[in-house]
Amino acid sequence: MKKIINALIVLFVIFIVGCSGSGSVSNSSGSGGGGAPVSIGTLPNGSTVYVSQNNLPISNGMPAQANIYLEGGNSNESYNITFATNRQLATKLNSSESYGINITTTPTPCVIGTPGSGATSQCQVTIASSATTYPGTYTITPSAMPTSGGTATTLSPLTILVSGSIKPNTKAITSFLLNGVAGAISGQNIAVTMPFGTSLAALVATYITTGQSVKVGNVAQVNGVTPNNFSAPVVYTVTAEDGSTQNYTVTVTVAQNSANALTAFSLNGTAGVISGQNIAVTVPYGTDVAALIATFTTTGQSVKVGNIIQVSGVTPNDFTNPVVYTVIAADGSTQDYTVTVTVALSSDNQMIEFSLDGTEGVIDQINKTITVAMPYGTDLSADLTATFLTDGASVTIGSVVQISGQTPNNFSTPVTYIVHAANGDTRDYVVTVTAKAVISQATGISFVGSYAFLSSNVSSDITRCSVDESQLSNCRNFTIDSSLLPQGASNISAIESTGGMTLYITGNDNPPSIIQCLLPNGPNLAVTAPCSKINQAVGLQANRMLLTANITPAAESSAKITSFAVAGVSGLINDNNNSIYVALPYGADMNGLVATFTTTGKSVKVNNVLQVSGVTSNNYVNNAALPYVVTAKNNTTRTYNVYVYWTTFSGMALNTYASSIRIPVVYSGFTDRMMNLSLIESNGMYVGLNYDYINSFPAEMNATGLSSISLATYESSGVIESYNYIMTNITESQIYACSVNEGATEMRVCSAATYTQGAIPQPSSAVIYLQAVRMSPTFTLPGVLLVASYSQNTLTGCYLNPLNTSVACDTDPAYQHNMSGVFNLPHSLSLNSAKTWLFALNDGDNSYAACPIVNGGINPADCRKTYFSSL
Asked: Which residues contact 659 (CB under 8 A, 6 or more apart)?
């Protein structure tokens, strides 16, 4: 009777489950115990078959449920799911009835499919045992047959845990799992080791028992459902049919962590690539691998290299050869990782320095261009040899390898240099070569016969040109050692005598260097004699060429400024004394000026402020050093002192009428003084001995800012009766006429000029084109001088009265010459040898103006303007 009742209960449960499963079916488990879905196979259409849980417990005829469903795969496909069971071969000891596992599905048959197939995507499986089913573990193997026909796919089996009495007094636990982890049963003790990190507070047991019921304390246990706290041992009490009991003590421990992986690894900030048990790190080019520090993360308890404990971000190692890192887990297991470090090949491919036959080029790293302005007169169609410095591995033009200082090329058209990095990267530089104007920023011009000699603000070279009335031609440059004129020149005076000629050049430095060059064979030959510096009261100092060793620096240590301009005005770069000189127009505002420069270094700073070429502005103080610090790639530095100053003015006047030959020198940078050269004649040439200073001046004269000087003579019957010095003062906007003592060593009487309508603004230079002459005992023809205004671009006529040492200027605009068409900030005036042409050098546009003197006057309309770039 009991067996019949049990069978009816099973059928009733199956009926209820089947009814409740009709309609929509979820993919959650239908029985207690939870559990995660488990994949049991993949179908030909790509769908994955899942069961909502496995290890399904059945206790004394109580069924278990699970859902089978599909995910993914091609649409319009459906499958019929069927089951086979494994049956126990022996019968229960108290029964001879057959037994088995009963399986029903909702819907029946269990047909599931993908979208478009018309079938549901899942079905519910109900599994029950009969009263005669022997307790134990059973497997059920499902298969999936396409409804369209074909071959069935065998899926992974489901595991069924059947509990139930064998005899009235049986009360054993024969299988015990916690959250799917099997326990070890030894007598009445069950030991379960849970994975590392498992919380023991609420674990659910799934078990097989031969008893009738199970309790923990007074709480009845539902197999696969009831949770318990296993922080301490838990006693499970199994009750048999006859009421007898058996206790099982379940002790749960948590396994120590077995993790021993390196999950991230870097060296000095460079991340490694972890592949299995190998780690590859490619560090930047130039890295010293002898003592690199690893930063790593690990799932292990500790990390060693050999016997040395490794501390992430602290412990250095030598990676010249592969290094083995051993990760030790909490449970003592280990895992080795072999770290191999490779130093990347250099990707550097910059041209750092470039010059052609000694002329340095300007490298634009942004646009990858190099421009070289060769000296005036260079034949660009002839082969030129480049000397260059690069951080690349090689340089080619096309496929031809270039050797610095050896390989010549024709630069009549742009040439592309290819810099190759060690790693194969390339960078192209287009080299464009031009010829410079014969002179830039000309400051002085002096005539001897049919030749003119010119000086420059931005060069120590002297330019000599042939003169044909107003036109300069056949120009060439002569090089003077830059150590003699480190800051360029402010003026030049050429003096011819019977034995040749002497050039006197005034430097821009303060006090100005006075350089003399002796040309004993006249101007038709090159300047071959060494030039000399005249020193104060100690005679000549021989010209010493400053020879420097031809040492090629490493590319990473190069820290040069190769071009520099302020407010569009190019500067003179003197690498010998690490100085840069920029001469701005006189009176220019020096605040907020922007420099444009190129450098071989990686950065340039002024007072720790990063300088961006063409962007960063600075305030400059006239002729005061502003340090520019250039940092090379290897972080070495080089400091250039940049001097931005108002262009200086100077003048000389040969005086052979004093008791000893003198050349007074005025210089606009002086404060209340002027120089006085002492000369002798030797072998028919004027030779400077030394100089001293004139420091005492009459009260009527301000000697600060003197910009030019001329010698005015007073002649009577072909004999020079007296002479005066005529000087312009650009700072005071004044003109002075002064008489001197017999030795021309001091000023005696000076008078300031008078004007009809206000002074001449910023008189930069004056020339005397008519000297005073006594025509009769009662009549003197005054001398006539022309004065240039720097700021107004005018030319004013003034008259010199030698009898009272006075100058009078007619500044009525009606009589002044407006020279704005040909003057542009006139720096200096000079007359040609025949005194038939007036020449003016312009600061504003690198040009000169030539005006014919006709009938003692000048007509601006007859003047001609020529740019030096056109010569």
From this structure: 742, 743, 744
